[in-house]
């Protein structure tokens, strides 16, 4: 049986925490900042932890826990 390959798009976008949660960048910061409030722009900095439903899907693409 061959080894399962990691999806290269997923390894660039997601990281697993030590407790097994999935971290990703915040959505909504690419363009259109003039429409957003200052509070929204501040809160979109950094990373966020995905919901369990989304994390379950992403973990299939990261078999080795990269």
Report on the structure:
The chain is α+β, with helices and mostly antiparallel strands and 66 residues long. The chain has a single domain (8-61), classed as Factor Xa Inhibitor, CATH 4.10.410. Helices cover 33% and strands 15% of the residues. The protein has helices at residues 8-13, 38-43, 52-61, and strands at residues 14-16, 22-25, 47-49. Strands 1-2-3 form a 3-stranded antiparallel β-sheet. The protein is elongated. It starts with 7 loop residues before the first helix and ends in a 5-residue tail after the last helix.
How are the secondary structure elements laid out?
Elements: H1 8-13, E1 14-16, E2 22-25, H2 38-43, E3 47-49, H3 52-61
Antiparallel strand pairs: 1-2, 2-3
């Amino acid at each position: 049986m061959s080894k399962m390959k990691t999806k290269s798009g997923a390894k660039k976008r997601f990281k697993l925490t030590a407790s097994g949660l999935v971290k990703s960048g915040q959505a909504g910061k690419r363009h259109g900042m003039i429409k957003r409030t200052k509070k929204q722009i501040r809160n979109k900095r950094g990373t966020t932890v995905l919901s369990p439903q989304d994390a379950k899907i992403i973990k299939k693409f990261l078999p080795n826990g990269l």
